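Propose amino acids for all 203 sites.
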C-alpha cells in the first residue's frame, strides 16, 4: 500500500519583491500619520501661543489705561504731539512718579520705565517679550497721544489734532502683533483712553 506523504514543510514565504512593496506601503502610511500628528501639534502650539499673547496684550493695555485715567499725560512734543510714537510718558498723580511705556527698537518688547525723566533711565519692567515666539510688534503698534490743553497756547504748541476748545489729554494705544512668516493670524488689541488729570499735585 502506497501512502502519499503530505508536504507539511513546503509552504512558500514572501518573496523579496513582496517584502519591499509591503515595507514601502507601510512607510507611506507611517509618514502620513506622523505628518498629521506634527501638523496638529504645531497648530495647537500656535493657537496656545496666540491665546497667551492676546491675554498678555490685554493685560498690558489695562495697565497703561489705568495710568492714563488716573494720571497726567506729559507735555513733551517729542512723544505727545498726536502722531504715532514708540514711547509714551505719564505722570502718576498719586505720587508724581513719571512712567514711560516704550517699544524696543527691534519691535520685540514692550517695557515700562518707572521713575524716569527721558524714557530711557529709571527702573525697567518688561510687560511683553515676543522674543522666541516668532512674532513681533507690527508697524501699526504704537501710541497716538496728546496732553490736556490748559490754555489756548497749548493747542498750537503741541500740534495735536486741531480743536477750538480746551480738552482732556488722550492716548490711542495699539498693540498690533504679527507673524512675519504669515503662518499665524494677527493679534490686534487697541483702545483710546482719556486722561482725567485730577491735578493732585496742586492739592
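Proposal:
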Amino acid at each position: 500500500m502506497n501512502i502519499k506523504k503530505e508536504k507539511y514543510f513546503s509552504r512558500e514565504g514572501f518573496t523579496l519583491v513582496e517584502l519591499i512593496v509591503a515595507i514601502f506601503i507601510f512607510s507611506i502610511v507611517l509618514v502620513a500619520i506622523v505628518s498629521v500628528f506634527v501638523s496638529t501639534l504645531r497648530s495647537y502650539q500656535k493657537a496656545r501661543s496666540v491665546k497667551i499673547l492676546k491675554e498678555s496684550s490685554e493685560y498690558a493695555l489695562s495697565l497703561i489705561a489705568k495710568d492714563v485715567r488716573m494720571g497726567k499725560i506729559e507735555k513733551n512734543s517729542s512723544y505727545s504731539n498726536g502722531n504715532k510714537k514708540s514711547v509714551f510718558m505719564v505722570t502718576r498723580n498719586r505720587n508724581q512718579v513719571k512712567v514711560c511705556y516704550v517699544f524696543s527698537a527691534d519691535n520685540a518688547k514692550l517695557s515700562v520705565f518707572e521713575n524716569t525723566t527721558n524714557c530711557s533711565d529709571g527702573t525697567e519692567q518688561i510687560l511683553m517679550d515676543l522674543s522666541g515666539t516668532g512674532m513681533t510688534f507690527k508697524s501699526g503698534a504704537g501710541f497716538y497721544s496728546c496732553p490736556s490743553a490748559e490754555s489756548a497756547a497749548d493747542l498750537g504748541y503741541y500740534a495735536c489734532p486741531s480743536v477750538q476748545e480746551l480738552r482732556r489729554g488722550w492716548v490711542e494705544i495699539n498693540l498690533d502683533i504679527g507673524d512675519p512668516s504669515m503662518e499665524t493670524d494677527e493679534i490686534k488689541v487697541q483702545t483710546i483712553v482719556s486722561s482725567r488729570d485730577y491735578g493732585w499735585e496742586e492739592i
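The chain has one domain: 27-202. The helical segments are 16-70, 152-157.
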